[in-house]
Amino acid sequence: MPDADPHALFAAWLAEAEAGEPSDPNAMALATATQDGRPSVRMVLLKGHDARGFVFYSNAESRKGGELAANRRAALLFHWKSLRRQVRIEGAVEPATDAEADAYFASRARISRLGAWASDQSRPLPDRAALEARLAEAERRFPDGPVPRPPYWQGWRVIPVRMEFWQEAPFRLHDRTLYVREGTGWAVSKLFP
Predict the structure, then answer these.
(1) Could you tell me the sign of the dihedral formed by the alpha carbons of 62, 68, 71, 74, in that order?
(2) What is the domain extent for residue 117?
(3) Active site residue: 42, 63, 172, 181, which one?
(4) Residue 100 lies in a domain
């Protein structure tokens, strides 16, 4: 019998991935689309998960930030090859709170915080020296103490309306469990492989 709560099942699967996946068990493919529907996908890191949704952080002025501003829907895919599992998630996207973004930003390594100030993410870079010069400029700007969160650096929360858990099985007879949001609960069903 499938778990009635997909968030509890996800937490259990993520814990298994954290224990056994060799690299970045919190890596997920993030699919967005432009307002006219052109799809775009890239890998990002999950930085928070609870019953409210799945949180990641980035530059709001990046390509993904522009696409999320234009179309507040996204899809996520976790693929844990060594566990032979994947989780697909679809839903609306909302900004994380400033308090959440500030707390996560403060937890990052200092060089990563400086890098957020130095990078015009997704825009053309003339050469590596230009990035290194901008990083040096950020180091001069914030020589000691905390590095504040840039105003364009934020988090997003994907609020799931659909979650599918896929487990590999022999002869491609995989196990697929689908959760679809219905009011405050979830409709649970199985899918053919």
Answers:
(1) positive
(2) 6-191
(3) 172
(4) yes
- H/E stretch holding 39 reads strand 39-45
Q: How far apart are the first and last CA of the chain?
A: 17
**pLDDT 10s digits, 105-159:** 999 999 999 999 999 998 999 999 999 999 999 999 999 889 999 999 999 999 9
A 10 A CB-CB count for 131 gives: 15
User: In terms of pTM, does the model score above 0.90?
Assistant: yes
Q: How far is CA 185 from the centre of its chain?
A: 23
Q: Which residue has the tokens 């099985």?
A: 169
Could you tell me which residues come within 8 angstroms of residue 177 by beta carbon, excluding any fewer than 6 positions away? 2, 9, 164, 165, 188, 189, 190, 191
Burial bucket for residue 49 (CB in 10 Å: 0-12, 13-18, 19+): middle
58-94 confidence digits (pLDDT tens)? 999 999 999 999 999 999 999 999 999 999 999 999 9
The answer as to whether 79 is a domain residue is yes
Answer yes or no: 42 catalytic: no
Among the listed residues 61, 17, 26, 32, the one whose alpha carbon sits nearest the alpha carbon of residue 44: 26
Name the one residue in this structure whose structure tokens are 């937490």: 11
Q: Is residue 153 part of a domain?
A: yes
At 126, list the tokens. 């003339």
Q: How many domains does the chain have?
A: 1
